Each structure stands twice: as C-alpha cells, then as structure tokens.
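In the design runs reported in the main text, the only information available to the sequence generator was the tokenized backbone. The following block is the verbatim input for one such run; it is reproduced so that readers can re-run the procedure and compare outputs position by position.
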C-alpha cells in the first residue's frame, strides 16, 4: 500500500514512511510517519488510541513552581520593557541577558492591557510571566486536570481551541502546534479569533533542520508520538497561506538541546531518565567544552536559518503590523 498523501500540500507522489521510537520515557514503541516528497512535512500515520497516556504527570509543560516576589519583580520590569512600557533597568537587563521569549515578543506589537491566549498552555508558566507585565492572559489545554487560576490571576481552562469564542490580540502556540492532529482546522479557527491587526505566534520544531538530517529518528524534537505533525519552513508557510495568514516574521531560536538530547537518544539515554543531562546537568557525559561547542553550533545554525526550531509570527493576509 503506498504512503498516504501529505496532510498539508496533498502530494502523494514519492512520499515515504519513516519509523520513530518513543524515547522521552523510553517505551521504544514504534510509530510510522509519512514524509512528503514535495514540502518535507511529516505527520503521524496512526495516532495512539489514548494520546493522553503519553502525557504522564512528569511531562515538562505541567510543572509549575511558585514565583518568589523578587523574581516576579524581575520578570515584570524585563518583560514590560519588551512591550514598550518598561523602565531603563528593564531595558538594560534585556540587553545583558534577554529571556527566551524576547526574540519574538518584541515583534508582536503587543502592549499592556492586550488580551493573549496560549493554546496548549500546560501549567501556564509563560503566561504567568507575561501577566506580571500587564497583559491580560488566558490559557487553554485539553490535558489539564480541570479549570484553575494561577496566583497571578491567569485563567487556565481545560478546553480545546475550536470551542473558543473570545477574540485576542495574540494567540500563542508555544511548542503546542506540533501536537495538533488537525493543524489546518486549528490554525484557521485561530485566524478567526484575532482582533484587528492581531497575530498568531507559532513556535515549532523544524523537520528541515540540520539536527533532523543529522540524527533522523534520534532527533530529540521528533518526540514520537506526542509530536503528531513536524513542519518544515515550506510546509508551515503553505498551511498559513491556506487559512488566510501570512508569515510576517521567522525567528530561528534553537539551542544546544538539539545536540545533547539527540546524542543521548543515540545511546538510548531517555529524556526522563535520571542519567539525562536534562534531568541532572551535574551528572553529564558531556564536557564543558562540548557543551560550549553545542551552544556555538546552535547560534550558527540559527543565523543560517537551519536551527531545529523557529518562531513564526503570522497575521491575516490583509492586515498590517501594529
């Protein structure tokens, strides 16, 4: 039986099946993905009957820690500066050590008071930081145990985007869009929930990256079967255009995990294993020199546009930046 057609562009000629094993928990369950010969997109052929079984209590996005007062102040002044409302100390802090979200948040045009929705929010860790800067934040995630509110006042709802009726200045998919089995339907609905000149921010792994070609199924961000769709830059741009969005900005923001995580997977050291660098950096098989090299490689690949993840800021095709 020939491989299925591509979920994004519909191509059926020359597609192939690739097999990836579950390696976050180390079950080594095999999963088939179809790789499109035209746009490079990969999608999971047969998702597990119970996807929730692969989102254990230890899954990283459900970890939440209390934010001490001093750190909350630090987050507030640093993040407010990215929204054009900060003080000189916040701007200085961002120059010295910018947070991971600095690279895309400043380009969204968001301002204090704007409404933000995070789809697949987990414990709401990012939203808790953004809320301190004056944004009005809401999070939804179908895998939450129930509705809740964070100490910062962020509403977290056990819900799916397709049931959302509110509108927002920005809708975030912060490493959640690759988990969506119906990406066209979800992105199309997100586009309808945007306020005037709003944006959709999608942070995803990239299957046309150096790390994907170097490590194949051992690439840590393949993450079978949780990552149902693995986009290339081409396949994501095509999907956005199909639902009336244009990719306004692309920011490659990969880091050294693409190397240390994938090298561990090659050795069957699983991400949730006590032996993993991610679990305990003090018990690592990598030298300080190797880790510095991984950092340098990641920065170089980002400059080349070949990092293993990127942030896409999308607006409606007819809208202009704020």
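Verbatim output:
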């Amino acid at each position: 039986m020939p491989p299925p057609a591509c979920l994004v562009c519909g191509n059926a000629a020359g597609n192939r099946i690739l097999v990836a094993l579950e390696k976050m928990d180390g079950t080594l369950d095999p999963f088939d993905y179809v790789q499109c010969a035209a746009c490079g997109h990969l999608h999971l052929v047969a998702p597990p009957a119970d996807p929730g079984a692969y989102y254990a209590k230890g899954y990283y996005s459900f970890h939440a820690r209390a934010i001490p007062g001093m750190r909350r102040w630090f987050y507030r002044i640093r993040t407010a500066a990215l929204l054009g409302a900060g003080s000189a100390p916040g701007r200085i802090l961002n120059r010295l050590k910018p947070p991971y979200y600095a690279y895309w948040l400043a380009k969204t045009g968001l301002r204090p008071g704007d409404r933000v929705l995070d789809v697949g929010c987990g414990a709401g860790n990012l939203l808790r930081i953004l809320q301190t800067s004056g944004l009005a934040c809401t999070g939804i995630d179908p895998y939450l145990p129930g509705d809740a509110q964070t100490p910062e006042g962020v509403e977290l709802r056990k819900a799916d985007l397709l049931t959302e009726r509110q509108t927002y200045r920005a809708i975030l998919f912060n490493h959640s869009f690759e988990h969506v089995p119906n990406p066209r339907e979800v992105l199309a609905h997100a586009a309808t929930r945007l306020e005037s000149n709003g944006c959709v921010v999608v942070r995803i792994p990239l299957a046309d990256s150096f790390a994907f070609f170097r490590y194949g199924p051992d690439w840590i961000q393949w993450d079978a079967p949780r990552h149902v769709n693995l986009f290339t830059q081409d396949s994501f741009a095509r999907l956005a255009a199909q639902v009336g969005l244009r990719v306004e900005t692309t920011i490659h923001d990969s880091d050294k995990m693409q190397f240390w995580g994938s090298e561990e997977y090659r050795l069957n050291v699983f991400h949730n294993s006590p032996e993993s660098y991610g679990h305990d950096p003090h018990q690592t098989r990598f030298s300080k020199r190797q880790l510095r090299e991984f950092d340098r490689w990641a920065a170089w690949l980002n400059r080349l546009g070949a990092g293993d993840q990127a942030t896409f800021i999308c607006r409606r095709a007819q809208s202009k930046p704020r």
